[in-house]
Q: What sequence folds into this?
């Protein structure tokens, strides 16, 4: 016979359980626009920011060989603004590179394994 937990045991279990945590940051959209000799990237992220202790804090543009061409640091949480889009201008991509990827980071999990590829069109 399975006995239900006593109220005190339920309370103790609830207090010992880890808080619901925000997962890793998700890249929901990105685009690249050529401007002269450089590129502007507009990237939309989704993350269950909880405040300063856990928030999406950066995204970057990475080449096929792992070269980081630009990083957009996010200096504060976006608790009330989800998803959100931020831009990075003046990104120099060498001639001959036809595709890059966007990677995103949060302050707890670090850089996400998710990568969003972008084909560069002149």
A:
């Amino acid at each position: 016979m399975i006995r239900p937990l006593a109220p005190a045991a339920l309370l103790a279990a609830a207090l010992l359980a880890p808080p619901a945590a925000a997962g890793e940051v998700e890249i929901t959209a990105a685009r690249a626009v050529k401007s002269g000799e450089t590129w502007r990237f507009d990237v939309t992220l989704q993350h269950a920011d909880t405040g300063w202790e856990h928030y999406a804090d950066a995204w970057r543009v990475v080449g096929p060989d792992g070269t980081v061409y630009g990083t957009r640091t996010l200096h504060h949480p976006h608790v009330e603004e989800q998803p959100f889009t931020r831009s990075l201008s003046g990104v120099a991509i060498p001639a001959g590179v036809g595709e890059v990827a966007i990677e995103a980071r949060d302050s707890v999990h670090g850089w996400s394994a998710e990568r969003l590829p972008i084909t560069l069109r002149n």
Remarks:
- The longest strand covers residues 26-35.
